[in-house]
Every structure is written in C-alpha cells, then in structure tokens.
Write a sequence for this structure.
C-alpha cells in the first residue's frame, strides 16, 4: 500500500503528535508485528484522505466566513435554491472514495481471518481480572503473560470464564472480545523479542482498569526452554527454609483452594502458581513481580485491586506470614 | 371573525364538571395559574419549556459528573475517586447526557416549535404531551434516587451482559427500570409529534414546504417509534433475568451474550441519529437566516435525512466489530457503515453552499451553527475511520471512540442545541440574550471543547482504553489527560457564562415578533406567543412562507423588501375589511378553510371561538404510578408494584373519561394566560 | 351562560386541536393508532426473534416444545381468538348502522371470546408448570412464557377496552358518531390477533 508521507504528515496534526509521543508502549501506530502492520498500512491512507477532506471542509468554511461576511454596502444575496449538478457531484465523489476504501478494507478483513500455518495454539481465558493461557498442545498453563516464539504466529482461541472481556496487545494486533460461551479466534506474531503491553478493553467490572496483559516474544530456543520449564512439576521448597514455612502456610491459609500448584493443590478460581517465580508480573500484570509488590498485594489484595476475587480467608496475614509466603512463591520456578 | 373577549372569571359559575369521577379535586381550567397551572398545563409551549429547563439541569449534573471523571483521570494512579464510584459516575454521565439531556432538549424544542412551524395551535394530543414530560421527570428522578439507595448504575451506559446480569445490588435495576420509564415518555412523544406533523399542518403547508427542522424532527420521531420497542424488549429480558432468574442472558443455560448487544444496538444505532437529526435541523434553520439566502438543496436535505433514517437500521453491528461475528457479517456492516457517510456528507456540503455567496452576520446562534458544521465534520470523519474494520479492532473501546462520539454529540448535537437556544430564546421568552456574553460563551466552549476531546484521539491511538478509573505511569498518556482535564473546566466556565446570560436577561423585553428577520412561520406571532399561537390558522403558499411575505426577488434573484408585508393571502369569496387588533402583523384577515363550517360568511356576523384544550392533572397523576411500580418491582415488594399498576390504570381510566375541554372553557376563547387582553373585532 | 352554547352546535365551529380538518383526512386518533401498532410490530418482532434465536439451543435433557405442546388444544383457542376478530368486525358494522343493541352484543361476545382465549392460555400454562416447565428451566421456557405472556397481556388490555366500550354503550355514551372509537379498538384487536397467528405458526406449528 502506497504511503503518501506528505499527505499523512500534513493532514493529521494529531497523528503527528501521537507518533512523536514519548514512550507509548501500547501505541497502535507503532506496529511491532505483521498483523498490526497490515492494519496500520490500511488505515494510514484513510487517515490521510480524511485529513484532506477535513482541510477542504474547514477551508471552505473559513473562506465563506471571510469572503461573504456582511458589509454595509453588500447587496442582498441571490436566493439560490440548489444546483443539481453540484449536489450529484458531491454525492458521487464521496461514494467513490468510500468504495475505494471499502475494497481494501474487506480484503484485509478476510486476509486477517485466515488461520496461519505452523502456529502455536493457545487458549486464552479471560477472568475477572486476569488472563489465563493454556497451551493445550504443549501441556502448559500459565497466567498474565503470553509467551510466544518469534517467527511463528500464535493462534488464539478466546474464551471467558465470567463476563465479556477483550484481549488486546496493541503493538501486535487489534483486539478481539472474549465472550463466555463463544470461541473467538485471532492470530498474530511478533517481529522481534521483547515485551508488548496490552490491556482488557471491554468494561468487565470494578477492576477493569487493572486487567492488563503482556505478550513476551522470545527466540525459538528460549521459548522451547521456557516450555520445558513450565511442563516440569513444582519445585519443592528446601526443608528448614522460610520457603518451606511458606508452603505450609499456603496449605493452612487455604490458598490452594483457589490456586493450582502442580502436585500440591487444584484450585481454579485464581491463576496457576506452579511456576509463579518465572513470571515478570502478577495480579493481572499491574505489578512487577518483586518482593515489595508481593508484600503490598498479600497485605491487602482488595485494596490494591478493588472487586477482584482474591479474598484471603480468615484474618489478614501478618508481616511474618507474608515474608514466608513470599519466600515460598520465590521457590516456584 | 372574532376573538371574543373572555368573560371575567367571576361572571362564570365554575360548576364541578359532572362527568369527572374524582370530585374532591376540581379540574383545573384555563384560568388556573401559578405552580398548579404549570403542573397541570397541556400547552405545548409550557411543556417545551419544562422539558428544556429540566434537561438543562440534568446537563449541569452530567457535566459535574464529567468534571469528576476528568479530575480522577487528570494524572496517573490517581485516588480522587474509588473504582466503584468512578464506574457509577461514568455510567451515569453517559446515561444522563443521552437520555436526560440531548433527547429531552430535542423533544422540548420540537414540542415548542413543531406546532407553530406548521401553523397549528397545539400538538395532536395535549394531555399525552404533558404525560410525556412528567414521565421523563419521574424517570430521571427515579434513576438518580439510586445514588441515595445503594448506589447508582455501574454497568456502563450500554450495560453489556453477562456483567449486568450478575452485578449485585440494585444499581443495574435502577438503570433498567429508569430507562423503561424514559422509553414510555419517548414513545408517547413520538406518536404525538408524528400525528401532529402528518395531520395538523396549516392549509397549503405541504410536506415539502415544511421547515427543515420539522422534517428532521419527524424522521427522528419515526426512529424513536421503531427503536424504543427494541430496547424495551432488551430491558425486559434483562430485568426478568435479574428478578426472576429467567435464562435470556444465562450463559450456563446456553444463551449467547451477544443477543443483548444485537438488541441494544439495534436500538442504539438509530438512537444516535435520533440524537443528531434534530440538531441538524436546527443548523439548517439558522444558517439560512444569517446568510440571508435559502437552505441550499432543501429537497436533498430532506431526502438525505430520510435516507439516514432508513440506513441507520442497517449498521448496528459496527458497534460489535470485535465480538467475533465472522468476516462476512463484519464486511457487510463495514460497507453499510461507510455508505451512511454519503447522505451525511451531502449535508455538510449543502450547509457550506448555504453560506456561500450569502450575506453573513455572526450573532451567537450563527457561531454555534458554524461550530456544528466544523466539529461534526471531524466527528463524522473519525466515524468513517471506525468503519475500516481492521483499524476498528485497534480503535474500538479506546479513547479514540470516546473522541468520535463527543465530537458528534457535543460538537454536533449540543452545539446545534445551543444554536437553537440562542436563536429561539427571544421567541420563547420574549427577551434577547446578551450578544457579548453569547460570544464569550461560544469561544470559551469551542476552545474548551477541543482542548478536552481533541486529545482523546491521540490517547486512543496510543492505546488508552475507555472506562478505566485509572491508568499507570509510563504509557505516554499523562500529558494529554492533563490537557483534557483543564479543557473540561474551560467548558464549565463557558456554561457559567451562559447561565449568567440567562439570569441577566430574565426580565421581559420588547423583542417583537421577528428580531432576526427570519424565514418561517413561528416569527409571525408574538414573542412569546399567546396560548393559541395563531389568531387565525395561516394559509401557506410556499416554503419559507414568512420570507416570501416580506421579500420578493429582483431579476437577479436577489431579495427585495416588499413595501407592505403580505398578510394572509385572500381566498376567493371571502373578502373582508382589513381589520384586526392594533399592531397586528397581518392586516388582511381571512377565514382559513375549516374555520367555518359554512365558509365565507362576512366578518362580524360570524363568531369564531378558539378554544384550547383545558389543563388536567391526570397526566401528572398517572406518571407518578410508574416509579411506584418500578420501586415495587426492584425490591420485590409485589404489593407496591400492584398498587402502582392499579394507580396507573385507574388514572388512565379517569383521564379517558375526562373531556378534552372543561365546560368552563367552552365556548369562550381559552383565557389569555399571557395576560394580554384581546379586543373584539368590530363588525 | 357558559352552558347554553355547546361545543358542536350550529354556526359555532370550535377550533379544537383534536378535530380540525386534518391534512390527511384521517383523524388524529386513527393516525396515532396506526403509529402505535407500527411500534408494536417491533416489540413483538424483537420477542419473536429472541424466541427463534433460542430455538433448539436449550440444553439437551431439559424440557423441549415437543414435550409440552398440545397442538389440538392450542388450535382450538387460536380459533376462538380468530372468531373474536369476526365478532369485532360485526360490532363495528353494528355501530355504524346505528344498531345499539347488536353493537353491545358483538362487543360483549368479542370480549368473552378474548377472555376465553386468555383463560385457555392460563390453563395451558398451569399444565406446563405441572409438567415441570417454569420460567427458569431453560431458554425455551423463558422465551416461550415471556413472548406468550406479553401477547396475553395485550389481549387482556384489549378485553378491558372492549368491556369499557360495552359499559359506555350501556350508559348511552356510545352513539354512532363515536363509531371510530370502536374502529380503533378493533384495529388494536385485529393486530393482536395477527400477532397470535404469527406466534402460533412459528412457535407451535413449525417444529
């Protein structure tokens, strides 16, 4: 698709500003994958055309205001009722322009709907307020971060456990809603290794704003290594360590009722924690995975993320208990 | 013809009308004044004023809600509003602005203007008209009572299931029942205005001679007529799920949550044309007056409005492009969405052509009208970009969409409505608004509006989702959010200027019938008009009837003022002496057809009595039943709900048996509630 | 004084927003009724579409139409409703002819036929409930009861209107000049009947 750079720059001041923005990691106009790029290539000329039309309309209005403003000696205007030729013209011209936009649009729609070969199949399940990823072919279950290999597309099957959410990693692709009872699909890939930020984009309740997403693209060898690590069982904490104390607390406090740790517990209300320590973020990716944040979270999950489903049974955890639990979580590589 | 001086009230014996079942409360009559007079009025003008004033108050409330949202979003990780509070405020902001501001403002304007623009004395069903207003007020108050009764609706203004099916508490119930109540007001109003326009036009006022505002309002009323039942069904289904555990939106039972979206948007898309068409009509009235030439391409403007009305039913799923409908469906709706831009674009060019080669002056109504043309163009163009489906998967549910609809609803509808407010204020209130304050209002609002919503385009394209109570640092969104917040307070300031303007000019002035040198029939009657609008039903001989009475054209087609403004055209066989009360604009009176059963009798020997329908309290009483039923249903107190139902049925029954005119008000001319004393026309 | 000159007498023609000569020649009330029925088409259209969308989607093992529908029974009550449209037409003809007695006869008959239809439906519903089908069971039961319930409510309102007309006539308040009121109630009644034909066909007859 030919890009008219001059028109794009001239026509959309705000586009210019957007493109020049500092560090906008969820920017839709800086594609980092082929799907997002295809979308961007489609819309840029459309923005340009829209910009030209806008300048034309604003220009005509400005000219009219200046040129035809009443002066003391200006005569009464001619009482023009219409001009059929002009009116037909400005009906047909926009129609033709829109036709020119519609054709590549529809072509792109069908192209993007095709299922790619050699994709990694992942089932994405939206929950209030976190994302679950199940790599069914590979036997991996994880949460919050979608890890993918560079050079291969991921083919997502999208579903929801409760209400409608929407899965969106803007630099890589457009969004698709996850609708309970329906299996939507989408596919995309990443150009290069890196972290790509996203967010739930369908209002899903109190902490909709706190339901973020991340895709982490890795070199194929790294991805395979990651898969292998995820398929392994849970690491047991060494005896006599704070981690072991934490594992006892984990059972005692009922954490396992909601969280699965392979071989230890089978809860499904919350994310699978078997390899928690391998993740860079948690709690719907609102926190980087470090001790300080874990402490904040465990102290008061409801305060940090209102309305989320993590309600720690019994009295709030004491600081020592939190220390031990953090130690345990850190062993779950 | 004669307008007989009303008998002094003491001379009459206001007997209790025999056929009113309720005897303990005397039926108000045309003589009833004061607050009770307003509460029982069936005069379309008073009702229009009540609609507009109430809607304006809701506008201030909705605006306050917006300021709260903007304060919370002014910076990242802000803690000004808690999550749940924010969710209630954004839900109510949207619901208020759409259902409690733009729709009733348009309804109020239509209510006031449609009869006088078509030469009628009132709408077809004056009591139903009053009913519509009271139901609107009841619905708005009912919905807002939720803030004090457990929390306001918090599911977003389009309330997607399964979220709203399962949200605990009664917040959503208030939303559902509140909208149902408001829907009744809209539906009855639509039927009333449709019948009025179709059936009550003055002689000679063919459809293609009607003012364009009448046309656009008519199309909007038809859209309401057919769209409201669809959301009514959707809301019933949701309320049954919540109250009675039916399965309409129960995924576990096999339901598809998209059913709600299809039903909602099948209403929702025509709804946005309901919101914009009347404002387009206003702009189409204002631009010609201040360009001093006719609307360019009247026929095309009418047909494009009708086209938009029809095509608007075929685009609803463009609100669902990311829901997984499949490439075929999505392509079809993409095409239909793009093509609805054609009739819309035509209007922009016709408006520009109206300005072109005109003689332009720029009082405040004109500023807002031109503001509409430019801002709506921006909003319309961003709308077209949404039609590019793959791009929409990036845009939807982000601030880019929020930008689009604020440009068309605020920069479009609200600017149009402000244009109408300034333009028709002299007619409604008998006073002019201050021009200097008006210009300050416009420029502050224009700047504030673009500061607030312009950045939303950028924020959306940079990935900021909508309906989020907070956002983190490091996304690049901080600066534009702050700019937007500042802009919102500039808007607030501009509204303060508007309020000051109205307050400063609250004393009646002498504005005359036609302060703007306008083109349509409403400017032939006094400002404000008497209760009966027209002393005689006018006879219409062309579009822009008033303009043609004032001006003829020279050989170049330019307007030339006539020496004497034409009055009512003569009809053969009914010559009369030029008579009429002093200061009458139309010295030549003639009987319009239908004024006399036996046509053509000489003036003076013939007494024509204009009587107006009498006020009634049944519309208000009936309306009260609706929130009663709703409270009963929400709290599952069936006794209350049944009582409310009985209340409604009983009131309707009493209303149906009440005659349109109280005996005290026949046959004498309905009294002059403006205090103007009419002189009898001499024989 | 105020009572000696009545509204519709002799040389005094009232300008009353309800009854001036209209632009179409139809009365305001008639145009209003047609408009209202137009909106009702969308109401029932949305309900019927919901039912049809859910057709066959109820969870297997839960109650299905074939388990509960008694087509012969419902055919009889449908016939009753259809006949009531005939008697409605007869009532209108009677009042236009000035036959007050027959007007009342046919109005009452229509109301009774309509009431029988509603009673029949109510009975049918109780049978369904006894057979284990209530509002909550599945998609079919929810959409069936809501759709037919809305229709039944509309019939009931129609019956109340007919009885009101009957009562007015009994009190001498329904002269031939008010024939249009009967016509408009008739329009509503026929509409409700047509909706039933659609429902009966799509829901009961087509498997």
């Amino acid at each position: 698709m030919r890009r008219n750079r001059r028109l794009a720059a001239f026509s959309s001041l705000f586009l210019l500003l957007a493109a020049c923005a500092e560090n906008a990691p969820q920017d839709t106009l800086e594609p980092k994958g082929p799907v997002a790029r295809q979308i961007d290539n489609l819309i840029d000329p459309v923005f340009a055309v829209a910009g030209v039309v806008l300048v034309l309309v604003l220009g005509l209005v400005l000219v009219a205001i200046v040129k035809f403003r009443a002066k003391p000696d200006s005569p009464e205007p001619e009482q023009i009722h219409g001009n059929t030729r002009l009116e037909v013209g400005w009906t047909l011209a926009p129609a033709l322009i829109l036709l020119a936009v519609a054709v590549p649009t529809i072509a792109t729609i069908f192209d993007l709907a095709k299922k790619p070969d050699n994709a990694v199949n992942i089932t994405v399940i939206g929950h209030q307020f976190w994302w679950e990823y199940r790599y069914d072919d590979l036997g991996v279950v994880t949460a919050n971060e979608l890890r993918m290999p560079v050079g291969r597309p991921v083919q997502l099957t999208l579903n929801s456990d409760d209400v409608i959410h929407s899965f969106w990693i803007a630099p890589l692709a457009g969004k698709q809603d996850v609708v309970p009872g329906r299996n939507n699909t989408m596919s995309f890939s990443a150009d290069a290794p890196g972290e790509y930020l996203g967010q739930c984009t369908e209002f899903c309740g109190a902490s909709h704003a706190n339901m973020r997403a991340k895709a982490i693209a890795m070199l194929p060898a790294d991805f395979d290594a990651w898969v292998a690590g995820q398929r392994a069982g849970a690491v047991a904490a060494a005896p006599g360590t704070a981690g072991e104390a934490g594992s006892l607390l984990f059972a005692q406090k009922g954490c396992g009722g909601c969280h699965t740790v392979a071989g230890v517990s089978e809860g499904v209300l919350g994310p699978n924690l078997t390899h928690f320590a391998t993740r860079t973020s948690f709690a719907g990716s609102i926190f980087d995975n470090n001790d300080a944040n874990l402490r904040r979270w465990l102290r008061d999950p409801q305060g940090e993320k209102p309305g989320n489903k993590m309600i720690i049974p019994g009295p709030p955890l004491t600081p020592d208990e939190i220390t031990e639990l953090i130690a345990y979580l850190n062993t779950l590589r | 013809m004669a307008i007989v001086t009303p008998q002094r009230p003491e001379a009459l014996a206001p007997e209790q009308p025999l056929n009113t079942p309720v005897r303990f409360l005397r039926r108000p009559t045309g003589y009833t004044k004061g607050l009770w007079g307003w509460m029982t009025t069936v005069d379309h003008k008073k009702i229009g004023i009540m609609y507009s004033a109430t809607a304006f108050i809701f506008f201030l409330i909705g605006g306050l809600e917006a300021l709260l949202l903007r304060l919370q979003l002014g910076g990242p990780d802000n803690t000004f509003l808690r999550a749940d509070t924010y969710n209630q405020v954004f839900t109510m902001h949207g619901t208020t602005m759409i259902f409690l501001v733009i729709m009733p403002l348009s309804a109020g304007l239509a209510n006031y203007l449609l009869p006088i623009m078509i030469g009628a004395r009132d709408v077809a069903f004056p009591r139903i008209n009053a009913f519509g207003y009271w139901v609107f007020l009841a619905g708005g108050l009912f919905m807002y009572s939720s803030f004090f009764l457990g929390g306001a609706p918090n599911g977003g203004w389009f309330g997607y299931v399964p979220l709203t099916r399962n949200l605990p508490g009664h917040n959503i119930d208030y939303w559902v029942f509140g909208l149902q109540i408001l829907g009744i007001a809209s539906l009855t109003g639509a039927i009333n205005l449709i019948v009025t326009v179709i059936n009550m036009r003055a002689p000679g006022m063919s459809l293609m001679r009607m003012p364009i505002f009448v046309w656009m309002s008519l199309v909007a009323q038809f859209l309401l007529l057919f769209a409201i039942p669809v959301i009514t069904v959707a809301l019933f289904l949701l309320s049954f799920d919540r109250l009675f555990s039916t399965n309409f939106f129960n995924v576990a039972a096999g339901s598809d949550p998209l059913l709600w979206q299809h039903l909602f948007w099948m209403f929702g898309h025509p709804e946005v044309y309901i919101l914009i068409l009347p404002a387009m009509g206003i702009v189409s009235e204002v631009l010609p007056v201040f360009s001093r030439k006719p609307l360019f391409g009247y026929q095309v403007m009418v047909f494009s409005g009708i086209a938009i009305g029809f095509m608007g039913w075929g685009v609803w799923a463009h609100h669902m492009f990311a829901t997984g409908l499949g490439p075929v469906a999505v392509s079809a709706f993409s095409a239909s969405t793009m093509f609805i831009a054609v009739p819309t674009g035509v209007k922009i060019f016709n408006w520009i052509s109206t300005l072109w080669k005109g003689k332009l002056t720029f009082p405040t109504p004109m500023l807002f009208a031109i503001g509409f043309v430019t801002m709506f163009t921006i909003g319309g163009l961003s709308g077209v970009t949404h039609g590019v489906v793959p791009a929409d998967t990036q845009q939807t549910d982000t601030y880019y969409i929020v930008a689009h609809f604020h440009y068309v609803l605020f920069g479009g509808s609200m600017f149009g409505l402000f244009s109408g407010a300034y333009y028709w204020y002299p007619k409604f209130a008998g006073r002019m608004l201050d021009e200097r304050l008006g210009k300050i209002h416009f420029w502050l609002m224009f700047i504030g509006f673009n500061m607030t919503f312009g950045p939303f385009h950028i924020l959306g394209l940079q990935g900021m989702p909508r309906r989020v109570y907070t956002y983190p640092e490091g996304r690049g969104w901080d600066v534009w959010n702050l700019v937007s917040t500042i802009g919102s307070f500039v808007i607030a300031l501009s509204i303060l200027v508007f309020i000051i303007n109205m307050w400063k000019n609250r004393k009646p002035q002498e504005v005359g019938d036609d302060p703007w040198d306008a083109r349509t029939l409403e400017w032939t009657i006094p400002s404000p008009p008497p209760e009966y609008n027209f002393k005689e039903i006018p006879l219409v001989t062309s579009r822009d009837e008033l303009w043609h009475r004032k001006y003829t054209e020279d050989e170049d087609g330019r307007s030339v003022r006539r020496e004497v403004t034409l009055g009512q055209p003569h009809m053969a066989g009914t010559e009369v002496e030029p008579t009429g009360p002093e200061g009458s604009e139309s010295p030549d009176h003639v009987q319009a057809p239908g004024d006399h059963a036996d046509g053509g009798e000489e003036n003076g020997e013939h007494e024509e009595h204009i009587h107006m329908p009498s006020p009634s309290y049944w519309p208000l009483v009936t309306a009260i039943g609706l929130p009663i039923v709703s409270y009963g249903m929400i709290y599952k107190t069936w006794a209350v709900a049944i009582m409310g139902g009985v209340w409604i049925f009983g009131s309707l029954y009493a209303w149906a048996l009440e005659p349109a005119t109280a005996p005290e008000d026949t046959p004498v001319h309905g009294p002059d509630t403006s205090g103007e004393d009419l002189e009898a026309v001499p024989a | 004084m105020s009572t000696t000159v009545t509204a519709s007498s002799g040389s005094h023609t009232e300008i009353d927003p309800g009854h001036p000569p209209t632009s179409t020649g139809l009365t305001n009330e008639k145009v209003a009724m047609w408009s209202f029925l137009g909106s009702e088409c969308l109401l029932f259209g949305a309900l019927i579409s919901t039912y049809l969308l859910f057709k066959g989607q109820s969870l297997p093992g839960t109650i299905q139409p074939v388990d509960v529908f008694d087509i012969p029974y419902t055919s009889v009550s449908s016939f009753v409703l259809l006949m009531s449209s005939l008697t409605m037409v007869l009532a209108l003809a009677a009042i236009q002819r000035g036959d007050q007695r027959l007007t009342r006869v046919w109005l009452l008959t229509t109301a009774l036929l309509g009431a029988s239809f509603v009673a029949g439906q109510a009975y049918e519903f109780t049978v369904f409930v006894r057979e284990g089908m209530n509002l909550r069971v599945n998609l079919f039961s929810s959409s069936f009861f809501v759709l037919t319930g809305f229709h039944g409510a509309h019939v009931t309102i129609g019956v109340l209107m007919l009885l009101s007309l009957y009562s007015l006539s009994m009190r001498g308040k329904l002269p031939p000049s008010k024939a249009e009121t009967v016509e408009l109630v008739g329009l509503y009644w026929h509409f409700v009947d047509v909706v039933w034909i659609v429902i009966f066909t799509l829901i009961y007859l087509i498997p």
